[in-house]
Amino acid sequence: MGAVVFVADFASERQWVAGRSWAYPDGGPTNPGDDKLDHLTHDPAYVRDGLFRATRRPDGLWDAGLLTTEESEEDFMVRTGDRLETRVRLPVEVGAWPAIWTWRDGGNEIDVFEYHPDNPNLLEFTNHVRRSSSYVRDSAVAPGAVIGLSVTFGGKSVVWRLNGEEVFADGRGVGSGWHASLIVNLSVCAGRWHPRPDDSVNELSYGVESLLVHRSV
């Protein structure tokens, strides 16, 4: 199983940086080119208790919570062979776009998961490093459901598990020297690929109950 080398403490300012990431143009706060209504906020109330929130702004954007290990004091990175495990509570409202993913130097992106409540039983898994992906439907996946996910960042195959069962092995992997920072966030859909929130909705949220990384040493 390997040693646990990272246990997320979302309140820790040594582990995490809030409200900015170089995965967004100029580090944020907006990313309209990716069909996002996000306006990243540094406000700890949007992330620091593990409840990732987004609230509507008067200008039509949404203040949105994001945490990254990128450029944090500890500067933790996952690397080839690591296994990430997380337990999340999926959002309910259409327009919410939760994700856990990796990023470094304009790429190195592996999507641990993405989810959209308008596709209520479907999870999206993507290896952007070597271009592979899968849409997985499962009865355990639903708005408001709590699910366990794990991803092994193998050099020759990235392997995803849902509630302990393997659901996708991409046979592509990340290569031997791969490493990247972690990002946990809640985006808001702008309507191109998935519906934006209903006009009556002013707040979205999803929860990350745990996140840890095992490493063979």
Description:
The chain has 217 residues and is mainly β. 0% of the residues lie in helices and 45% in strands. It has no helices and 17 strands. Strands 1, 3, 4, 5, 8, 13, 14, 15 and 17 form a nine-stranded mixed β-sheet that branches. Strands 2, 6, 7, 9, 10, 11, 12 and 16 form an eight-stranded antiparallel β-sheet that branches. A hairpin with a 4-residue loop joins strand 11 (122-127) and strand 12. The chain is globular and about 50 Å long. The termini are close together. The model has no long low-confidence stretch (mean pLDDT 97).
Structural class: mainly beta
Give the H and E element order. EEEEEEEEEEEEEEEEE
How many strand elements?
17
**Average pLDDT across residues?**
97
* Strand coverage percent: over 45%
What share of the residues lie within helices?
Answer: under 10%
Q: What's the tally of helices?
A: 0
Bulk shape: globular
Cα distance spanning the termini: 10 Å
Which stretches of 5+ consecutive residues score pLDDT under 50?
none
Whole-number radius of gyration? Answer: 16 Å
Largest beta sheet, briefly? 9 strands, mixed
